[in-house]
Amino acid sequence: MSQLAHLYDALEVIGKGSFGTVRKVRQKSDGKILVRKEIEYTSMNSHERVQLIDELRILKDLKHPNIVEYHCFDHLSEKRTLHIYMEYCTGGDLAQSIASFKKDQTSVPEGLIWQVMLHMLYALHKCHYNFNAGKVNLFGVDVNEPPINQKQVVIHRDIKPDNIFLINSGSETIFKLGDFGLAKLLKNENDFAKTYVGTPYYMSPEVLMDNPYSPVCDIWSLGCVLFELCTLKPPFQAKTHLQLQAKIKKGVIPEIPDTYSAPLRSIIHDCITVDPNLRPSCFDLLENLSVKFLRKESELIEKSNNLNEYQKQLSIKNDELNKKEVFLNNLERKVETQRSDLEDNLKAMQKKFNLQKKQLEDELFEQIDLTKKQMDLEAKELRLSYQREFRHVVDNEVQIRLKELISKQSPVNNNGLIRKHSDPSSPASQKAHPGGPRKLPSDPLQIPQLSPISPQYQQAIQTSPQTKRIPLKTRNDPDFETPNNFFVGGTNPLNKNTVLATRVHNNNYNLAKKRMELDRMTGKRHIPDYEEMYLRNRH
């Protein structure tokens, strides 16, 4: 059962071979386009299956910008099929480009040929030496060729235009080496190919004659590809396979058109050398002066492209920053406008609040003033009513006391005087009161003139000790004692009868009690001074 098929969407078929199909697929996660080789291994013999396993192992370890990238593989055991997911090259292969130039009857530009050679040399350097080629040094000392690790060297053995793929990256075209199905992984120096493999048109003589071969067999194939780019046809052509083998063994190739430079033609002739010991290696070609200049130019172009890319990214970042700056400025203005609006709204609300507060305060103060005036008026009316009641009570008490005093003063006078005043039929009484007995005034405040005080009472008052004037409220207290207990249980100096003092004490107690009740009802308000003076004068 497939473990990876659900991660991809199958697209159109772009190629078919003897062992399977090549199909485009789209990765669901990011939409990236890949190539899937669908290989059926049921019809393969044991050698071909080993070859397939070798390809997977080789592709897994080869990571280089000029080698088609290997992603993963999926084994479908029920279908006896193997799916290999690889990088999709958008520009097709080099065979399609040659066919296009041949159709248009135009020659391939020399710069394109140099670029194909350089990219393939970079890829072969990774395969043959297992590391990437370093930066070129035009003015440095010559370096020796690195040793070949026999345990890790990879020989492609099938370099041809169909296995060189193109990727269009802007103004630059990148060439990548792919299809390592016939690649041979050498494990020791005595391991040689004993079977016929590869395409005869681009096969080296040692491989064709089953002789021991080395990595330089790929240089022969590369030279044949470069020759075909210059002439738009392979260097060796024949009607039969035997004739083709004979021509390859001789190594005689047609002349390359003079339109191409001598260094290019010289390199192609060096690559197509029958003796492998005289054939240059990948390192030798990279150290060729023309190739070194080309490498330097390529490095400068790459740096220029990187700088342009950085400049482009910088321009994009600058545009983004400008957009963000404009956005932030607009946002700042918007925020400033909103803040200004909020401040205006706040000021308006504050003004409205202050106005409402002032109105409420005015209404409240007005209501308080009205309530206060009403309470003052009610208190004044209540005070006046209490004052009137108090004056009425005081006047009544004064009348009672006056009557008692008058009634107590009558025995002190001589009988003749009393009879004279009391007998209404006497001439003096009739003379004093021609209309009969005197009537009390209806107004309690209009008190008639009292009779003269008798000498004995006057003497008693004179002989009594002088006391300090005491306020009316104090004199009305029930525990107040007058001189000689005159009104509080004492004896009357004019009369030994104590009934008057006891009565006066009781009256004082009642007056004090009423005074306390009046103080409680009026909130302990004091009587105005003019009332006190009035009461004292009347008393």
Automatic annotation (TrEMBL):
It is an enzyme of class 2 (transferase). It catalyses: L-threonyl-[protein] + ATP = O-phospho-L-threonyl-[protein] + ADP + H(+); L-seryl-[protein] + ATP = O-phospho-L-seryl-[protein] + ADP + H(+). Residues 413-484 are annotated as: Disordered. CDD domains: STKc_Nek2 (cd08217). Residues 293-363 form a coiled coil. InterPro entries: Kinase-like_dom_sf, NEK_Ser/Thr_kinase_NIMA, Prot_kinase_dom, Protein_kinase_ATP_BS, Ser/Thr_kinase_AS. It comes from the Eukaryota. Residues 448-467 have a biased composition (Polar residues). Residues 8-294 form the Protein kinase domain. SMART domains: S_TKc. Its EC number is 2.7.11.1. Pfam families: Pkinase. One of its GO terms (biological process) is filamentous growth. Keywords: ATP-binding, Coiled coil, Kinase, Nucleotide-binding, Serine/threonine-protein kinase, Transferase. One of its GO terms (molecular function) is protein serine/threonine kinase activity. Gene3D superfamilies: Phosphorylase Kinase, domain 1, Transferase(Phosphotransferase) domain 1. ATP binds at residue 37. This is non-specific serine/threonine protein kinase. It comes from Hyphopichia burtonii NRRL Y-1933.
